[in-house]
From TrEMBL:
GO terms for cellular component: plasma membrane. GO terms for molecular function: formate transmembrane transporter activity. Belongs to the FNT transporter (TC 1.A.16) family. Keywords: Membrane, Transmembrane, Transmembrane helix, Transport. It comes from the Bacteria. It is found in: Membrane. It is a multi-pass membrane protein. InterPro entries: Aquaporin-like, For/NO2_transpt. The chain crosses the membrane at residues 28-48, 68-89, 110-136, 156-178, 190-211, 231-252. This is Formate/nitrite transporter family protein.
Amino acid sequence: MSGYLKPNEIAIATVETGAVKARNSLSVMLVLGFVAGAFIALGYLLYIRITAAVPSEWGSISNLIGASLFPVGLILVLLGGGELLTGNMMAVPLARMKQRITTWEAARNLIIITIANFAGAVFVAYAFGHIVGLTASGVYLEKTIAVAGHKLDESFLQAFISGIGCNWLVAIAVWVSYGSKSFSGKILGIWFPTMAFVAIGFQHVVANMFVIPAAIFEGYYTWGNYFMNFIPVWLGNLVGGMLFVAGVYYAAYLKPQPKVSPIAVNDNTIAYDKVKAQAN
C-alpha cells in the first residue's frame, strides 16, 4: 500500500475533512480553535525568542533560522489536533464547492474558528508574552515591536495581497499533509511551505493575532491599528486558501467534466479523413 495519496485522492479526502470540520459542534470548534490559535502563537513566540538574540551581522540568516522554527506551531495543529482558520479557509470551501455542506455551515465554521483562534493567540500573547515577560523587555520587546510595526505599516492592498500569498503556501502545506499517511511525511509536507511564507514575510491572520496584541500589551499601537490590519489579511488569506488552492484543485480534480460523445469523435474523424483525402 502506498504511503501517500495522489493529488486527486487528496482532493476527495479534503472534501470529507472539510465537511466534518463544518459540522463539528460549537464546543468542539471553540476548544480546537483555541488550541490552534495558541499553537500558532507559540510557534511565533519561538521565532521571536530565537531571532531577537541573533547578531544583526547575520542579516537574512536570522530570518531563515526563525522561519525554520515557526512551522512547529502548524505541526502541532495538524498532528496534535486543532482547528486553524487558514487551513479551514481551504478545506471547508472545497466541501462547499462539492455541495457536501451549505454556505451557512461554511460561514459559521469560519466565523467561530476566527473567534476561537483569536482567543488562543491573545491568551499566549498576554500570559506568556506580557505576564511571564517573554516579549515584554529587552531585545525581545524590540523584535516584537519591529515585527508588529512592519505588518501595520502595509497598506490595505499590500496586506490583502500578502495575505493571499501566505495562505496559498499554508493551505498547500495543509493539503500536502493530508496526502501523507505517516507522521514524518506530514511533518515534511508542512515544514517547507510554512517556512517559505515566513521567510518571504507574508501576513498570516492568526500569527498576527499574537504578535500585534503582544506589542499592544506593552503600550505600543492600538486595537484600532490591529483591526485595520486584520480585515485585509483575513480577506487575503481567504482568497489564497479558497481560490488559489481549493478552487484550483476543484477545477482540476472534482468539477464534473463534460462527456465526449464517441459518435461525435468518429464523425469528426471521418470528416477529417475525407478532407485529407481530397487534399491529397
